[in-house]
Amino acid sequence: MDRYFFNFSVALASVLANKLRSVLTALGIIFGVAAVIAMMAIGSGAQREILEQIRLVGVNNIVVTPIVKQEEGAVEAVPVKSDKKILSAGLNMLDARSIRDVIPGVEEISPEIIIDTDVIKNGRKRSAKLVGISNSYFNITNFIFSEGHTFNKEQLQRGSAVCVIGNSIKSKFFSQEQAIGKRIKVGSHWLKVIGVLKERYISKKNLTSLGIRDYNMDVYAPLNTVLVRYQNRSLVTQAAIKRAMHEDEDDKKNKDTNYHQLDRLTVQVNQTAQLGGVAEVISKMLSRRHFGTVDYEISIPELLLKQQQRTKSIFNFVLGAIAGISLLVGGIGIMNIMLASVMERIKEIGLRMSIGAKKSDIVLQFLLEAVMISITGGLLGIFLGIAISIVVSVLADIPTIISGVSVLVSFGVAALVGIIFGLTPARKAASQDPIVSLRHE
User: Fold this and answer.
1) Residue 185: C-alpha distances to residues 133, 161, 180, 191 (Å)
2) Are residues 125 and 271 in the same domain?
3) Which of 55-64, 150-159, 397-406 has the lowest mean pLDDT?
């Protein structure tokens, strides 16, 4: 142990005697380790964000959304023979029932009606969205109740004046009292609160990229409640006729009236492999039911998100490979500097060997020097990588996750680089002839 300790002290003294050279040698390792940690942190953050997005939109879901402006589809898609133009009835509950009853592989279906409205209580008013849903909505979107319960069968069928509120609605209107059992005015009707949803964090980026809303500010009511008490666009009412009669021609041209009964239709299938096939069948069914009018849009958020995840994974792999090359270059730099150091210190090597140092001692001395430089560079690189990850997260608004695994891997690779690339110079130093080395000038 004394011999090993002595060799370590000699190697440490040599590194400290050439501080500038040691630091310059370690730069490749420093930046390589920092790049590896930063890239893995960004990659882990991106993966977590994708998984969070998938959780927000649900698993194995197909989303059908209406298009207000009509476009004519293919002629062969129209099942009737007529010279007259047949208008589509829009996305409606009959479409939802047909998809549920006819298409195999459909596990659950969730129709939605979304109305912009105001919430009022105790003189306080706040804009919000009233969403007409069935209980399937909570299962598909993975919502968790913090208080209360879902709608019962009677409330769903009779269109009772009840609602479930988001966490932000509770915080703003029921901060000092229990929300369950209390009434809140939503639009022109008072609804009884029977449930409160657990808060769900949604970043601004997710709100934009996924086209979703802030669920925490929503008020949820049974579909029949919204259709009977608020709005049913599939019905032709006297108010709608009067409104249409008083509209100017220019207003009619510039304004596309939303005639769809539903604002969103989410279809959940049994298996991910069935998503594409079911989506194609839904498209053909809606094409026939809407008489060839393309007034709907079908999307599969999970597949889009997984494709995005794959793209990010490939991008992170490329960046990781570049960071690995930086470590390789750093290792080559260590080997070059150590080889040059051997040539500069031939006389020192000969002197040590002449007073009793073995070849193994010379190998250990130079190997320890290379490992010290690598480990020191690795430690500095870890701190630099963590700093870069934090700066990127703050300035670029990109989520980053610094894991202990990435730190350990980077540090281990740095030590391994020192051993691998320090071995050749160490062996070269030990192979010197002591007599020749002492005569070297």
Assistant:
1) 18, 10, 14, 6
2) yes
3) 55-64
Spatial distance between the Cα atoms of 267 and 233, rounded to a whole number of angstroms:
22
Q: What is the pLDDT of residues 309-340, one digit of tens each?
A: 666 667 667 766 776 777 777 778 777 777 77
Same domain assignment for residues 94 and 225? yes
Are both 263 and 238 inside the same structural domain?
Answer: yes
Domain of residue 284, residue span: 60-301
49 in the same domain as 99: no
Whether 206 contacts 60, CB under 8 Å: no
Instruction: Say whether both 230 and 340 belong to one domain.
Output: no
Reported as a single tens digit per residue, the pLDDT across 341-363 is 777 667 777 777 777 777 787 77
pLDDT digits (tens, 9 = 90+) for 4-41: 677 678 777 777 777 887 788 788 788 888 888 888 88
Contact 292, 73 (CB under 8 A): yes
Q: Which residue has the tokens 């003189």?
A: 123
